[in-house]
Amino acid sequence: MLKTKLRSSLFYVLRTNTPLSSAINFPNVSNSALSPQISSFSQLPTISECSRPSPSTACEFLDNLSFSSRVFCSRSAEASDLKPGCWNCGAVAPSSVVFLVCDSCRSIQPVDQSVDYFQIFGLEKEYEIGDVNLESKYKDWQKKLHPDLVHSKSDREREYAAEQSARVIDAYRTLSKPLSRAIYILKLEGVDVDEEDTISEPELLNEIMEIREAVEDASGSRELNQIQSQMQEKLNHWSNTFAKALRNRNFNDAVSSIQRMTYYERVKEEITKKL
């Protein structure tokens, strides 16, 4: 089919009534220099002649046209592997580097939404992050990205700085707390969690009501601290339950764990306001 289309397109141009020299503009070449070559095209066979069992030389040329899809695909793959260069100096960062700031010219780069919060802090995409010092890494980024550092730069770079700095702040706050980290990692897995979704289990609802009554009736900080310690224990339990469900890719149980964590976290916030 491709060869037939090529034949049709080529022979249409060659056999048209418009002289080839006027149809095609050859820069810096005179028509007289082209006339011998153009006249030779009049000897080319027609399309019907090309379909005969013994093709002419021109038909053989068309029949032997071939394209290597492997070559095109490999070039596309190579291009897709390249990271975008610095908007200011064109330098390309190594593939292992989170390209928020150019190491060559120190220019702040535009936000790359394909970079997740775990990558910003050099972490694996895991719920349990251990004793990682997020605050130290956060401060390191702000020393490079804070808008105050580029107040004398162009409007473009100041805008990039504001966006990058805000994103690093959100990444730090999200990963610092188990609940927000759990919600975020499920989002990366394509599971959206509605934090306002209510739980219909009577047993859990009764428990939450009793806890809130206890908070309201607490006579002092000692009782409030005791309740808060109990909430933290419950949070730790459901945090471990979430981690197990995530490892098993049981997203229904993971979402259920997050809903419980949300209730206990809100009770802790209420206690903190009263202390």
UniProtKB/TrEMBL annotation:
Family (UniProt): Belongs to the HscB family.
Gene Ontology cellular component annotations, sorted alphabetically: mitochondrion
Entry annotated with the keyword Transferase: no
Record keywords, A-Z: Chaperone, Cytoplasm, Mitochondrion
GO annotation (BP), single: protein complex oligomerization
Stored InterPro entries: DnaJ_domain, HscB, HscB_C_sf, HscB_oligo_C, J_dom_sf
Top-rank taxon: Eukaryota
Pfam family, any one: HSCB_C
Entry annotated with the keyword Cytoplasm: yes
Ranges for domain J: 116-188
Localization per Swiss-Prot or TrEMBL: Cytoplasm; Mitochondrion
Name of this protein: Iron-sulfur cluster co-chaperone protein HscB
MF terms in GO: ATPase activator activity; protein-folding chaperone binding
Primary site of residence: cytoplasm
